[in-house]
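Key result, reporting period 2: structure in, sequence out.
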């Protein structure tokens, strides 16, 4: 029974991650009209919202990485700093995805959020 409860929580967590990523993708679309510091702040708001949308039982390192990246984006004064913030966050998510897969878990929510981070990096690269 305990194992089934754990799987159920993981499934709910992944579903919440997918939903948070969908919200994040929509948020990034709204950021497309911005550039520079205004863009970094907009993307930071998206990351904060995704962090809040993750399930309570989600990997604390992943949630913390989103919050840290958001803070770093708000402090960024140039494209290189903004891209560095996203890259560091993506690295944490990459590790979490690898860990989930290594234990046979579903990493769909983490992967979806990592996809949003890739879109954020591309947006900053093109408009930052």
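The corresponding designed sequence is given below.
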């Amino acid at each position: 029974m305990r194992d089934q409860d754990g799987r159920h929580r993981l499934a709910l967590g992944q579903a919440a991650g997918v939903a948070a990523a969908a919200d994040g993708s929509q948020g990034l679309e709204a950021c497309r009209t911005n550039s520079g510091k205004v863009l970094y702040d907009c993307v930071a708001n998206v990351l904060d919202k995704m962090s809040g949308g993750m399930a309570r039982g989600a990997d604390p390192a992943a949630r913390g990485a989103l919050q840290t990246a958001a803070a770093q984006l708000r402090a960024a004064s140039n494209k290189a700093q903004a891209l560095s913030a996203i890259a560091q966050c993506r690295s944490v998510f990459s590790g979490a995805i690898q860990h989930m897969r290594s234990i046979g878990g579903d990493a769909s929510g983490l992967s979806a959020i990592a996809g949003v981070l890739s879109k954020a990096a591309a947006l900053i690269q093109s408009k930052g």
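The helical segments are 2-31, 36-53, 60-75, 79-102, 108-127. Residues 2-31 form the longest helix (30 residues). This case is discussed further under Risks and Mitigation.
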